Design the sequence.
C-alpha cells in the first residue's frame, strides 16, 4: 500500500511540475512505468519481451497517440550504480545527452520534435520512473481499482433501487392481504346471517324439501367463496414473504457491496497518505523524493 501511495504521489507531483513548466491549465495522467534496465539481463520468466531492443530511437507519441508530454525521474546514479544508459535526444544538428542522476527530472513534449533513445546499459542496473501525460481528459489513465469501484458503486445504486421497488411491492401486498382478510370476514358474517335467516324461515314456514335444497346450495356457495378468498389470502401471504426475503437479500447485498466499494477506494486519498512520507534525497533543481 505504501509503495502504491508513493508511486501515485510522485506521478501527481511531476504532473504539477509539467503543468508549471509548460504553462498548462489542465493535464491528466496517461500512464507510468517503473523501469529496470540490467546489463546482460537473464532470459527468465520475467523477460516478457525477449526481442525488445530498448536502445532503438523512438517517439513516444508514435507509440500512444494521446501522449502529449513525457517525463523521466531517475532513481539512481550513472557511473555509480550503472554504466551506459544515458538518455539521448537525437536532433538534426547534434545529439544531446542527459546523464541520469538520482532525483533528476527530465520533461519534454512527446511529439516527433523529441526523437530520443536510451543508450545500452553495460554494467549494473538502471532505475527510472517513466511517466506520460495527456491534455485529453477522455484519454486519461484509469486504475483498475477505480474502474472496479465505479462498477461497485453502480451495483450499489442498482440494488438500492431494487430494494425500494421490493419494499413498495411488500407494502402493496400487505395491504392486499388486509383487504382480502376483511372481505373474508365480511363474507363469513354474511353467510352466517343468511343461514340464520333461512333457519328461521324453515322453522316458521311451511317447510319442505325445496327449502332444504336451497339452504344446502347456499351453504355450498358460501363455502366455495370462503375457499377462494382463503386461497387468495394464502397466495398473497406467500408473495409477501417472498418480497420480504428479496428485500432483505437486496439490502444485505447493497451493504456488503458498499463496503467493498469503500475498501477499493482506500489508497486513492493521496494527500492524507502522503504525510506519512519524509524526504529521502534531493536532486538537481530542488526536486525532492
Sequence:
Amino acid at each position: 500500500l505504501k509503495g502504491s501511495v508513493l508511486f501515485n504521489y510522485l506521478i501527481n507531483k511531476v504532473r504539477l511540475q509539467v503543468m508549471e513548466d509548460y504553462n498548462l491549465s489542465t493535464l491528466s495522467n496517461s500512464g507510468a512505468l517503473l523501469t529496470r534496465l540490467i546489463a546482460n539481463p537473464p532470459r527468465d520468466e520475467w523477460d516478457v519481451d525477449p526481442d525488445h531492443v530498448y536502445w532503438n530511437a523512438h517517439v513516444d507519441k508514435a507509440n500512444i497517440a494521446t501522449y502529449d508530454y513525457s517525463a523521466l525521474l531517475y532513481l539512481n546514479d550513472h557511473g555509480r550504480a550503472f554504466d551506459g544508459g544515458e538518455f539521448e535526444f537525437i536532433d538534426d544538428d547534434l545529439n544531446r545527452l542527459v546523464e541520469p542522476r538520482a532525483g533528476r527530472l527530465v520533461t519534454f513534449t512527446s511529439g516527433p520534435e523529441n526523437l530520443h533513445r536510451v543508450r545500452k546499459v553495460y554494467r549494473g542496473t538502471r532505475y527510472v520512473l517513466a511517466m506520460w501525460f495527456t491534455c485529453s481528459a477522455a484519454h486519461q489513465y484509469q486504475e483498475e481499482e477505480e474502474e472496479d469501484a465505479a462498477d461497485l458503486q453502480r451495483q450499489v445504486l442498482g440494488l438500492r433501487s431494487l430494494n425500494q421497488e421490493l419494499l413498495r411491492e411488500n407494502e402493496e401486498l400487505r395491504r392486499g392481504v388486509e383487504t382480502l382478510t376483511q372481505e373474508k370476514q365480511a363474507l363469513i358474517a354474511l353467510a352466517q346471517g343468511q343461514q340464520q335467516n333461512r333457519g328461521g324461515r324453515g322453522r316458521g314456514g311451511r317447510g319442505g324439501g325445496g327449502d332444504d335444497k336451497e339452504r344446502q346450495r347456499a351453504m355450498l356457495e358460501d363455502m366455495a367463496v370462503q375457499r377462494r378468498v382463503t386461497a387468495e389470502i394464502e397466495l398473497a401471504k406467500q408473495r409477501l414473504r417472498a418480497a420480504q426475503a428479496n428485500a432483505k437479500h437486496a439490502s444485505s447485498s447493497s451493504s456488503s457491496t458498499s463496503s467493498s466499494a469503500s475498501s477499493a477506494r482506500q489508497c486513492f486519498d493521496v494527500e492524507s497518505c502522503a504525510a506519512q512520507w519524509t524526504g529521502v534525497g534531493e536532486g538537481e533543481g530542488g526536486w525532492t523524493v
